[in-house]
Amino acid sequence: MNISEVEILKVNIASNILKVLLVVFSVGVLFFGLYVLPILAGEMHDIYPELEYAKLPILIACELLLLFLLVGIGIIMYLLIMFDRGLTFSVKFIKGLEILVGMCIVASIGIIVLFQFMSTFGGPGPLLALAMIGVTFIIWIVAAVIMLIRAIVKKAIVYKDEYDLTV
């Protein structure tokens, strides 16, 4: 095996490891969304019975955000498959990255709206507020990284096209 074959093998191993980790993470998100989150909502209702009217909307909003996360993970898996097939420098790949950025923006808006809704009845507590702010910043950082990757791929497509024309 020469050096390029070793590099390709390393990239394929890394891609497969990332796919496995994303599947495990998705299973964890499903477990959290289908089992843990409803239990937490019930416990919060028991602690604060005056928030009966807010339990269901908050639970639905959180479930939708988790569903959004699962769709995003699905798009990342699709992009990984495209990467494995050598289709990184394609319009479809760039479109997938743009969709991910849009989803990050919508998710951060969803968290901000949820924060505003919870603040109308005195919540969230300081720890939850910090967590929501932290998650929003993490989403913005991920969106910025995806935009950077998109710009790099788009520039590489231009260079590739120019190279193909000169050869």
**Uncertain stretches:** none
Report the count of strand segments. 0
Shape: elongated
How helix-rich are the residues, as a percent range? over 70%
Taken in chain order, the helices and strands follow as HHHH
- Portion in beta strands: under 5%
The description of the largest β-sheet is: none
Task: State the distance separating the first and last CA atoms.
Answer: 28 Å
Whole-number mean pLDDT: 88
Structural class: mainly alpha
- Helix segment tally: 4
Rg calculated over all Cα atoms? 21 Å
What topology does this entry show?
Blueprint: H1 3-47, H2 52-84, H3 91-119, H4 126-166
Helix pairs in contact: 1-2, 2-3, 3-4
Task: Explain what you see.
- It is a single chain.
- The protein has 167 residues and is mainly alpha-helical.
- It contains 4 helices and no strands.
- The chain has helices at 3-47, 52-84, 91-119, 126-166.
- α1 packs antiparallel against α2 (52-84).
- The radius of gyration is 21 Å and the shape is elongated.
- The model has no long low-confidence stretch (mean pLDDT 88).
Properties at a glance:
167 residues, mainly alpha, 4 helices, elongated
Concise summary:
The chain is mainly α.
